[in-house]
Amino acid sequence: xxxxxxxxxxxxxxxxxxxxxxxxxxxxxxxxxxxxxxxxxxxxxxxxxxxxxxxxxxxxxxxxxxxxxxxxxxxxxxxxxxxxxxxxxxxxxxxxxxxxxxxxxxxxxxxxxxxxxxxxxxxxxxxxxxxxxxxxxxxxxxxxxxxxxxxxxxxxxxxxxxxxxxxxx
Length: 169
Description:
Keywords: Hydrolase, Nuclease. By secondary structure, the protein is mainly alpha-helical.
């Protein structure tokens, strides 16, 4: 697990505190982006990465993870079907968690908890892990449909400024 605040290379224009919970004082001892990027990419190398809408996190990291090693819970029709949602629509982590795990996440005014989101994502993955992995082994040509390209949940401040989150599972 990577558990550090990361200072972006560009100036922060919006902390998005309402969603991220991050404030100016969190950046005082934050890890510089390039150092964090090196550390995170070393952790991810050769590993299966599980997350929800992971492409946003990879974009913030300026990174492309192999599709065969990526599991994006926002893109698996089986999860949507089990939750009673249309298969071809990306459903929010909050709604999937409520429907399938009967848990409320992302509540309150202090911002999302990236740890809570990461745990919810892992629990959702476990709901379909056996069937999903079996399907991927039997249908490698359909992999892109199931794995369009998230270490569980990364919360950023302002993705346009390249801001990275505090937690990485």
